[in-house]
Amino acid sequence: MRFFPEKKWWLYLLSALVFAAAAPAKAATLSFFCITNNNAGNCAIGASQLTVNVSDAGGGLVLFHFKNMAGGSASSITDVYFDDGSLLALSTVTNGPGVSFSQYASPPNLPGANLISPVFETTAGFLADSNPPVQPNGVNPGEWLKIYFSLQSAGTFNDVINELGTGQLRLGIHVQGFSSGGSESFVNLPLSVPVPVPAAVWLFSSGLLWLAGLARRKKSA
Question: Tens digits of per-residue pLDDT, 93-102?
């Protein structure tokens, strides 16, 4: 049974790839870099095992899913801060097993916030920290924390992704519980801005048209 006309297969494939290229982003994973540098070893631990997955949760919600790698070195995310534009409004905080966070935090801004440029400025109300005792109730290895935000001002999830790329939206975490003692602050590495759809479509189209031409030349030969 033939599903497509023999000479038109590449057109159907092109259409499918163009659709895939134009589909909106649904998730992105961010890593962190250390801004306080109190201890090189502690900074390396945070950079290697702490991440946040940003995803479209549907219903106008964006999920920020903070994770501390299972089996990683001792460390505990105890404070989370957001330096945001105007797209989001904090909705809910969901604790994973062994984690106990509440909205608002002390101190009210990321420790060491002035050590980067531009200075990290926590948006009012866009912060949360672990309840006492802070280190055991933080996000330790193998644990996670979810924070949901509502999109505002007719914003979309792709707008959030773009702001993560331009630095208009930044995430800060304060980490304690290192085996060597001390604490460190981290800010997310900027997310690469997605390739514009027209450029992606052009790349797909050019490659497929070249393949189609090659197939025709081989058939003629």
Answer: 999 999 999 9
pLDDT of residue 212: 53
Q: Which of 142, 177, 174 is nearest to 72 (CA)?
A: 142
106: which 2 tokens? 């002390």
d(CA 129, CA 115): 21
pTM strictly above 0.90: no
CATH number where 70 lies: 2.60.40
Contacts 24+ apart (CB under 8 A), 156-159: 156/24, 157/24, 157/25, 157/26, 157/56, 157/62, 158/24, 158/25, 158/194, 159/87
Q: 165 and 72 in one domain? A: yes
**pLDDT, tens digit, for every residue of 125-170?**
999 999 999 999 999 999 999 999 999 988 999 999 999 999 999 9
Cβ atoms < 10 Å from Cβ of 177: 22
For 25, other C-beta atoms within 10 Å of its C-beta total: 16
Domain shared by 73 and 162, yes or no: yes
Q: Is the same domain home to 34 and 7?
A: no
Relative orientation angle of helices 197-220 and 9-22, to the nearest 10 degrees? 170
Q: Are residues 136 and 215 in the same domain?
A: no
Is residue 39 located within the same domain as residue 19?
A: no
Domain around 209: 1-25+195-221
